[in-house]
């Protein structure tokens, strides 16, 4: 394999959000993108590097290309882990959060009669993975009803977990930030009580990696799953799995091993895949490192506060996410009394050119808004105007 193509990092003013937005090329889209919760948008330089890497991979046998990336793969892992206080040898790059969760859920040793816990606020496919193992291996699965996160206090949430977790509980799936309304859960407290009863905690951090400041060792969790195509705006099909060193030998992932595989090596044998995506993480990381993760976090919260401050006292508008510092970030949900989430979604798109996401629970629907580094206050003014107009008109 020849030398890796590294396009020059364009000069940009890290204090000018307009200049940062221009590096995403998002202006060519005919709508306002407020759905980074589903997936971020890669900056142009990541797309360029990916295109070149795809071409390079296409010209060589994939595994030769993969082997040629050994050094870059290691430095990527080191940088990816560093962001959450983990070492390179404690993390594996996988394809997404779903895969990272599956590796733990399907790789956990079980005994008939074990008890597992998740919540209705968790991502459906995480719950689905637990359901599948529970069904086939005789595990009792408790699903906490966390459908009213707009009204529950942290203390009430901790109490619900406290009541559900017993000394028979072996695994708890926990969302760091809920995907529907963007609420940050009291992970540290729940983890402590789960572990004191002998359970392991699997954290779904799809929405907090490269978004909310956290350290896996400080949170104390055993397993951590995230996607890198959301808030890191890395290549689609990249995710990260962290396992606390004391827990790694207990997981037998449904993957082939090679002789000598230990620790996180066990999680790498996924066959031929889009290896260029893993290499392409480099520029996604560099781009955000240049901006600065601390500054990014502040900016994302600033953007949420900007639009919610202007609509939260508007008659009929309800914000379903606690806005206090430390309780949320850029993922915020709202509803307008008397209008279903799907109607609201359609009106936002058809009448105002705004792309957001409908979400909800049985009997309750709302809109999730997720700005990103490529969102400006002037973009959010359009959202605010739309919410005011829709809420006033009916
Ligand atoms: C909380 C949460 N977990 C897991 C996922 C799945 O992510 P992926 O499709 O990248 O595996 C999502 C996707 O939106 C999510 O919001």
Concise summary:
The chain has 394 residues and is an alpha/beta fold. The protein is built from 13 helices and 13 strands. The protein folds into 2 domains: 63-285, 3-Layer(aba) Sandwich (Aspartate Aminotransferase, domain 2); 293-393, Aspartate Aminotransferase, domain 1.
List the helices and strands and how they pair.
Layout (H helix, E strand, L loop, with lengths): L16 H6 L9 E2 L10 H15 L3 H7 L1 H13 L8 E4 L2 H9 L9 E5 L4 H14 L2 E5 L9 H11 L4 E7 L11 H10 L3 E5 L11 H4 L3 E5 L11 E5 L31 H17 L1 H19 L5 E3 L12 E5 L4 H12 L1 E2 L1 E5 L2 E6 L7 H17 L1
Parallel strand pairs: 1-11, 3-4, 3-5, 5-6, 6-7
Antiparallel strand pairs: 2-8, 7-8, 9-10, 10-13, 12-13
The structure holds pyridoxal-5'-phosphate.
Pyridoxal-5'-phosphate (PLP) binds next to helix 5.
Describe this structure in words.
The protein is of the alpha/beta class. It is 39% helix and 15% strand. The chain has 2 domains: 63-285, Type I PLP-dependent aspartate aminotransferase-like (Major domain) (Aspartate Aminotransferase, domain 2); 293-393, Aspartate Aminotransferase, domain 1 (Alpha-Beta Complex). It contains 13 helices and 13 strands. The strands form 3 sheets. It has a 7-stranded mixed sheet, sandwiched between helices. Strand 5 (169-175), helix 8 and strand 6 form a beta-alpha-beta unit. The radius of gyration is 21 Å and the shape is globular. The mean pLDDT is 93.
């Amino acid at each position: 394999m020849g030398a890796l193509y590294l396009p020059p990092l364009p000069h940009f003013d890290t204090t000018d959000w307009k200049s940062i937005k221009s590096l995403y090329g998002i202006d060519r889209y005919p709508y306002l993108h407020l759905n980074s919760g589903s997936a971020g948008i890669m900056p142009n330089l990541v797309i360029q590097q990916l295109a070149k890497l795809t071409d390079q991979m296409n010209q060589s046998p994939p595994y030769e290309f993969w082997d040629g990336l050994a050094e870059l793969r290691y430095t990527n892992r080191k940088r990816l882990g560093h962001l959450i206080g983990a070492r390179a040898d404690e993390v594996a790059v996988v394809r997404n959060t779903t895969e990272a969760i599956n590796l733990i859920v399907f790789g956990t040793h079980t005994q008939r009669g074990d008890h597992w816990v998740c919540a209705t606020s968790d991502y459906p496919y995480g719950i689905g993975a637990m359901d599948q193992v529970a069904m086939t291996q005789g595990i009792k699965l408790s699903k906490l009803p966390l459908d009213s996160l707009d009204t529950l206090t942290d203390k009430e949430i901790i109490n619900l977990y406290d009541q559900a977790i017993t000394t028979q509980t072996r695994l708890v799936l926990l969302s760091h930030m809920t995907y529907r309304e963007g609420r940050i859960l009291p992970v540290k407290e729940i983890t402590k009580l789960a572990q004191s009863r002998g359970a392991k905690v699997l954290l779904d951090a799809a929405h907090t990696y490269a978004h909310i400041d956290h350290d896996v060792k400080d949170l104390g969790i055993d397993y951590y799953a995230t996607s890198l195509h959301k808030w890191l705006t890395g290549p689609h099909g990249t995710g990260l799995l962290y396992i606390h060193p004391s827990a790694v030998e207990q997981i037998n992932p449904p993957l082939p091993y090679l002789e000598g595989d230990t620790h996180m090596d066990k999680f790498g044998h996924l066959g031929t895949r889009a290896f260029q995506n893993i290499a392409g993480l480099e520029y996604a990381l560099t781009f955000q490192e240049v901006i600065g993760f601390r500054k990014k976090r502040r900016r994302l919260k600033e953007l949420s506060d900007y639009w919610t401050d202007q609509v939260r006292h508007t008659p009929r508008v309800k914000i379903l996410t606690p806005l206090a510092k430390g309780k949320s970030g850029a993922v915020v949900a709202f509803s307008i009394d008397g209008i279903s989430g799907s109607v609201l979604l359609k009106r936002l798109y058809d009448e105002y050119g705004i792309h957001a996401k409908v979400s909800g629970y049985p009997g309750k629907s709302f809109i999730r808004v997720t700005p990103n580094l490529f969102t400006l206050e002037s973009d959010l003014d359009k959202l605010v105007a739309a919410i005011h107009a829709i809420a006033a008109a009916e």
